[in-house]
Prior knowledge:
Layout: H1 4-23, E1 38-45, E2 49-50, H2 54-64, E3 69-72, E4 79-80, E5 85-92, H3 93-123, E6 130-132, H4 142-151, E7 164-167, H5 169-175, H6 178-188, E8 194-199, H7 202-210, E9 215-219, H8 223-233, E10 238-242, H9 250-254, E11 260-262, H10 265-268, E12 275-280
Parallel strand pairs: 6-11, 7-8, 8-9, 9-10, 10-11
Antiparallel strand pairs: 1-5, 1-12, 2-4, 3-5
Amino acid sequence: MVVGEQLRVEVQRNVSAALAEDIGTGDLTACLVHDGVEARGRVITREAAVICGRAWFDAAFAALQPAALVTWHVRDGDRVEPGQALCDVTASARTLLTAERTGLNFLQLLSGTATRTRRFVDAVEGTRASIVDTRKTLPGLRLAQKYAVLVGGGVNHRIGLYDGVLIKENHIIAAGGIREVMAEARRITPSHAFIEIEVETLDQLREALDAGARMILLDNMSLEQMAKAVQIADGAAELEASGGVSLERVREIAETGVDRISIGGLTKDVTAIDLSLRHIEE
């Protein structure tokens, strides 16, 4: 899970890279404005959304002008409606003009991820299923997007290859079978990491359970197969449904009784929320 100091460091890393990419050797257009002129701006949403990314927005302005003031009217996780004011920014006109796009890019993208996640979470409300992300994230923005999933009410899967073992078909084949790969996984996996194994059939599920699996991913199974898998496992393992999950279908999947539903589209198919920073006349 993305938390605390790790997230703070990531915000600074993300924003530094984004500003360097955008500004390069200097903002030529902002130089049209006299240095030292104060300005105010207000961020407005043009559509309904779940807001996420305040820390990245703040950091974009603070990096250029530590004294820049961002006054928020909403928190991460709040639902907002079209036309609603999200925050006011007071800074030099040059800072406002230069940091505007970087700040909005993060706020728009992460709000898009949080909003999409919340739709899936709302769709399975009342069932036992959690909505879980994957490693299908935008390069360089994994922790940011996984934070946005949390803000949207979802659950983080492993952050990367280092904090969890997910055994897939090729791992099973290379290791010589389900029992063999599970034994090796238990031997090498550190105590802080979990072990999960992917199965494609109910026979493989039974074999994984016999081998001691306590987290099992049901790969592209039908609704009937998933419901049967829940009966077979009978609480002995946490079951995760994956593959072909859409907003229209997710409720049916949740009602089979699975514990988790992982969705790559939470982070890889995200659409940014439409936001605008309007300059306010004094």
